[in-house]
């Protein structure tokens, strides 16, 4: 049961970078907008790319496909690396924070976190399962307070009953030769097949295109990437 509803974190690189830096991510790594999913647009994104995040509207199409995909995986099975860090999202509108935690947690071999709330959370979460990690995040006041502070700073209005927030953030990362989709509202990580660190952006973009194709009447899709700062 969700214990708290937060104001959502904006898909605004400036806000997201402040959030990451507040939690101990060095400014060497930052979030940038991905302006389009065609190869020319992708070529403008600084490399290396550590993760790709997609913000999209939660629609009937998403919910139906989510259920169908889950049923297929449960019947056929899938290979998941034991090195993937995955957690559940328990707090309403915390998907931006969960997406950023997924991005950093799966790249701690490259990102040298300084001592702080995120490093403490990841150290404590290391040996927990996905559900327990989600519960631990609820209790991680430092991370939740950083979310609250920066959500206030963005232009997002407080969600009201008439206008509930219905956007969701998910993360794509490379781990052990595979492309993983990490969505805290799904039952488990989704293995989308082979990729490499160099091809992560292109392969994640191909999956993002499928999300968009499933909702042809919808235009509210945003893609950002965690990359090395220029």
Automatic annotation (TrEMBL):
Superkingdom of source: Eukaryota
Record bears the keyword Methyltransferase: no
GO molecular function: cysteine-type deubiquitinase activity
Keyword ATP-binding in annotation: no
Record-linked InterPro entries: Papain-like_cys_pep_sf, Peptidase_C12_UCH, Peptidase_C12_UCH_sf, UCH_AS
Active site as annotated: 95 (nucleophile), 168 (proton donor)
Record-annotated UCH catalytic domain positions: 5-228
Catalysed reaction equations from the record: Thiol-dependent hydrolysis of ester, thioester, amide, peptide and isopeptide bonds formed by the C-terminal Gly of ubiquitin (a 76-residue protein attached to proteins as an intracellular targeting signal)
UniProt keywords, alphabetically: Hydrolase, Protease, Thiol protease, Ubl conjugation pathway
Enzyme Commission designation: 3.4.19.12
UniProt protein name: Ubiquitin carboxyl-terminal hydrolase
């Amino acid at each position: 049961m969700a214990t708290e509803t937060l104001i959502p974190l904006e898909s605004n690189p400036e806000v997201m970078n402040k959030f990451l830096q507040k939690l101990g991510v060095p400014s060497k790594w930052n979030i940038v907008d991905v302006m389009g999913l065609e190869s020319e647009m992708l070529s403008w994104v600084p490399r290396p790319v550590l993760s790709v995040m997609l913000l999209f509207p939660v629609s009937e199409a998403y919910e139906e496909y989510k259920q169908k995909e889950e049923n297929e995986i449960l019947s056929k099975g899938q290979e998941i690396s034991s090195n993937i860090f995955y957690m559940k999202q328990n707090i309403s509108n915390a998907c931006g924070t969960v997406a950023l935690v997924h991005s950093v947690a799966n790249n701690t071999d490259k990102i040298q976190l300084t001592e702080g709330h995120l490093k403490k959370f990841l150290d404590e979460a290391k040996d927990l399962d996905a559900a327990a990690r989600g519960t631990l995040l609820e209790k991680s006041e430092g991370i939740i307070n950083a979310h609250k502070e920066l959500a206030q700073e963005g232009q997002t209005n407080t969600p009201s009953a008439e206008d509930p927030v219905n956007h969701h953030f998910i993360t794509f990362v490379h781990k052990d030769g595979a492309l993983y989709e990490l969505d805290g509202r799904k039952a488990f990580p989704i293995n989308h097949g082979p990729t490499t660190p160099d091809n992560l952006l292109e392969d994640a973009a191909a999956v993002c295109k499928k999300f968009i194709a499933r909702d042809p009447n919808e235009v509210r899709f945003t893609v950002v990437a965690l990359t090395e700062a220029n």
